Amino acid sequence: MSVDLSLIERSACDVVELLREEAVSPHDLLDTLAAQVARVEPRVNALPTLCFERAHAHADALLKKPVAERGLLCGLPVPIKDLTDVAGVRTTRGSLVYRERVPASSDAGVTLLEAHGGVVYAKSNTPEFGSAGHTYNSVFGITRNPWDLSRSAGGSSGGAAAALASGTAWVAQGSDLAGSLRTPSAFCGVVHSFLAQARSPRRRHLHRLACDHLCVDAHRHAGHCDSVRDERERSAGGDTDRRQGAW
């Protein structure tokens, strides 16, 4: 195990550059995140489902490729909102109805993210079916604001935003239909960016109108958020009217 908690303070851009230089490996980042999760998660509850074994296996496969072929994220760990399917990982959508559900395949957005070098290591908390502006559900309980544990982290991507603010993620995936990324980003002091609706690759389900997005910690660096968004839009095909994006 290689743990370097100073990496938590680095921006996503810095960490990806270190990955490209092979100064750190995805395994180093996963070990560091596991240590940080152990420190803060009992109080914050942003990432209730962890899949580090799956993440290390994915990192092993990624490291077999030349650096130039490891994608935009090059092995950067990314948590996925618990509304979004990840193959082999418990995905509850915050509902007792699905509390034991383990999908056999991943959402198209997750597949694309992993194809570009993202390494999924956790599921972030969400209100039931993403239907509230405060992140609480009967499966995992409440997600607290890392700045003040008596305050709300917002919702419905409250787990994603709280993970960023508490240093258990450099970037985080989520979704937005009616403020689900805008509210938690504001509450937790992070930055969000999302694809235009027509450019967001998704399987059809209850949340098919929600836009995939990535958040980054505003107190470190927001530039990588735009870089990932641009790359995903190119992968989805065609040009996107930037006026359809947020903020």
Write the layout of secondary structure elements.
Blueprint: H1 12-20, H2 26-44, E1 49-50, H3 52-63, E2 77-81, H4 108-115, E3 119-124, E4 136-137, E5 141-142, E6 144-145, E7 148-152, H5 158-165, E8 171-176, H6 182-188, E9 191-194, E10 211-216, H7 223-236
Parallel strand pairs: 2-3
Antiparallel strand pairs: 1-3, 4-5, 6-7, 8-10, 9-10
Helix pairs in contact: 2-3, 5-6
Sum this structure up briefly.
With 247 residues, this protein is an alpha+beta fold.
Walk me through this protein's architecture.
- The protein contains seven helices and ten strands.
- Strands 1-3-2 form a three-stranded mixed sheet. The protein has a three-stranded antiparallel sheet with strand order 8-10-9, with helices on both faces.
- The protein is globular and about 45 Å long.
- 31% of the residues lie in helices and 16% in strands.
- α2 runs antiparallel to α3 and α5 (158-165) packs parallel to α6 (182-188).
- The chain has 247 residues and is α+β, with helices and mostly antiparallel strands.
